[in-house]
Design goal:
Largest sheet: 4 strands, antiparallel
Oligomer: single chain
Mean pLDDT: 80
Strand content: under 5%
Helix content: 55-70%
Strand order of the largest sheet: 1-3-2-4
Number of helices: 23
Radius of gyration: 47 Å
Low-confidence stretches: 1-13, 167-172
């Protein structure tokens, strides 16, 4: 090791040679830095010098006295002696003379150098040709400015350039096809139209609007049906207008409101999805009111969802029309004792009760003073949710968020209609409804007949005293409760949107009861049965109630369908 260290010292330059550079250090700051550098060098030199002394020999006698296992000490001593002898033999050899004696194998080294020199020359040629090609490509004019003119016939480079951009070589069967023939051009055009039809499928041969941003909005909505439904619902809710006047481009502010409402709903749906996903550790989970496969089943699913909501709206309107509550927004409808008490509390009983006939199971209270103002959609939605909660029924979180967003958009009409969201100044709700209803609507005749009868009923309405009204309330409330119980029969028996699902759910309950799982679901809260405002926990009672409902539903539907409406009487 000492010889190796001395050899290194001979190869490396002497340290004291650079000490003379101090005279070039100008300024106090530079001289101070140079002084510190020399001090560090002195420290390094002293450290190296301190390690040049020969290492101490190992006192094996001392170690034999300390270690009781003499065999281990003997093995260590022999190994140390063997390694020391081996290292001394390596250091004693003359490596320089051994290298000089090695004269074979240098021709391989010389051949490698020659090969590398040739590779460098080829790389230089490749670099030169690549730079030339890049320069030519950069100087090329755009494809739109090229044409099959005479100068191309004399310039093979430009001719190949045009053909390269015009034809696809991997689609070219040069043995049987002529790229310059009219047949080949027709084939290329027909293949392009075929691919376009496969993607677009709208029978157009115009290829100048292939990109989506180049399409007019009606073609965009034709490709993406989801945004069409979303934007159309927002437009109709926001303006109360007609779908025939749907604008080609919505205002930018409306798009912002659409995104805001959408993200509010998805915030609720995603939170519920996360809770269910973490609780069940399911491999796959989808949002509420969404199909399992959104890409393939989304359009059909949301179509059914819209049809279901439409059926619910029609059934709700029919329920209100049954007792002429629809369009009677200037009065408070009273069908129960609690409603009677709340009505007289609105003005201390100073108003007047009206009756529209003995066949109308409802009284109408008109408070004293000014006419009742049109309630806001948000207030109506909150009242509905409060009533549902107090009666033991709760909306699903996603559905409640959608209702809230719908009410907010509906209420935003007031900004453009002088504070009104439904009626124009001096217009009744009946007139506003009929004005917006299309004559092509299948139910237009029903609503028209109801509006006329509603007007006639109120023209012959009878005012009641407080005592007369209180005397009629028990019979009205009894008939009202009967209507409530029969309404489910109508909804699940007449409506096609609910009848099929009702039968499937009844069969599902029966199967769960047969295998004994229904009681477990009721106890865990996964299923909740409500009757008369109270929760039912007995599975046998739930199954019996469902069976009784199925048996009585058809009878109720037959009796209701046999009744004659005002429209039937006119026929």
């Amino acid at each position: 090791m000492v010889m190796l260290r001395r050899g290194i010292r001979r190869v490396l330059p002497a340290r004291d040679r650079w000490h003379s550079l101090q005279e070039y250090a100008l300024g106090e700051a530079n001289q101070e830095q140079f002084r510190l550098l020399r001090a560090r060098d002195t420290t390094v030199t002293a450290t190296i010098a301190s390690g040049s002394t020969a290492p101490k020999s190992i006192d094996w006698t001392s170690w034999e006295s300390k270690i009781s296992n003499r065999e281990v000490v003997k093995c260590l001593k022999d190994f140390h002696a063997q390694q020391s002898t081996l290292l001394d033999a390596v250091i004693a050899e003359d490596h320089l003379s051994a290298v000089k004696k090695q004269t074979q194998g240098w021709e391989l080294f010389d051949a490698s150098i020659t090969s590398c020199e040739k590779s460098v020359e080829k790389s230089a040629d490749i670099l030169k040709n690549g730079a030339r090609a890049l320069w030519i490509s950069f100087q090329n004019p755009p494809i739109s400015l090229l044409s099959q003119s005479e100068w191309l016939d004399a310039d093979q480079y430009w001719q190949a350039f045009v053909e390269k951009h015009h034809f696809y070589h991997n689609h070219l069967a040069s043995a049987v096809e002529d790229p310059e023939s009219k047949e080949y051009d027709q084939k290329q055009k027909s293949d392009l139209i075929k691919k376009w039809e496969t993607f677009d499928g709208r029978g157009t041969t115009r290829q100048n609007n292939k990109l989506l941003y180049q399409r007019p909005s009606y073609e965009y909505y034709d490709v993406y049906r989801g945004p069409l439904v979303e934007h159309m619902i927002f437009y109709l809710t926001k303006t109360g207008g007609d779908a025939r006047f749907f604008p080609q481009n919505l205002p930018v502010q409306w798009f912002a409101e659409i995104y805001d409402a959408r993200f509010k709903i998805y915030n609720v749906l995603q939170r519920r999805k996360r809770q269910a996903h973490e609780a069940t550790l399911a491999r796959e989970m989808h949002h509420d009111f969404h199909p399992h496969d959104l890409d393939h089943d989304g359009e059909a699913h949301f179509g059914k969802l819209i049809a279901r909501e439409s059926a619910v709206t029609e059934l709700t309107a029919a329920r209100l029309m049954g007792n002429f509550v629809l369009f009677s927004d200037a009065y408070i409808p009273v069908q129960s004792g609690s409603a009677f008490y709340k009505a007289i509390q609105s003005d201390g009983g100073k108003g007047v009760f009206y009756s529209l006939g003995s066949d109308v199971h409802c009284l109408f209270y008109k408070p004293a003073g000014e006419a009742l103002a049109m309630p806001d959609p948000s207030d109506c939605m909150k009242s509905l949710m409060t009533h549902a909660t107090m009666t033991g029924v709760r909306f699903e979180a996603g559905y409640a968020a959608a209702l809230e967003a719908f009410a907010e958009v509906l209420e935003s009409r007031k900004e453009g209609l002088s504070g009104s969201w439904f009626t124009a100044p001096g217009e009744s709700s009946r007139e506003a409804f009929m004005r917006r209803l299309k004559k092509s609507d299948p139910a237009f005749g029903i609503y028209e007949a109801y509006a006329e009868e509603h007007k006639e009923r109120w023209a012959s309405a009878k005012a009641l005293t407080m005592d007369e009204a209180m005397k009629e309330m028990p019979e009205i409330e009894r008939k009202y409760q009967l209507e409530v119980s029969e309404y489910d029969s109508v909804m699940f028996g007449i409506s096609e949107e609910f009848s099929g699902g009702s039968k499937l759910e009844h069969e599902k309950l029966s199967k769960l009861a047969d295998v004994g799982e229904l009681q477990v679901l009721l106890d865990s809260g996964a299923y909740v049965a409500v009757e008369g405002g109270s929760v039912v926990k007995d599975s046998a009672a739930v199954v019996k109630s469902a069976a009784d409902f199925e048996s009585q539903r058809d009878k109720a539907v037959d009796s209701i369908m046999s009744a004659k409406s005002a429209m039937d009487k006119k026929k």
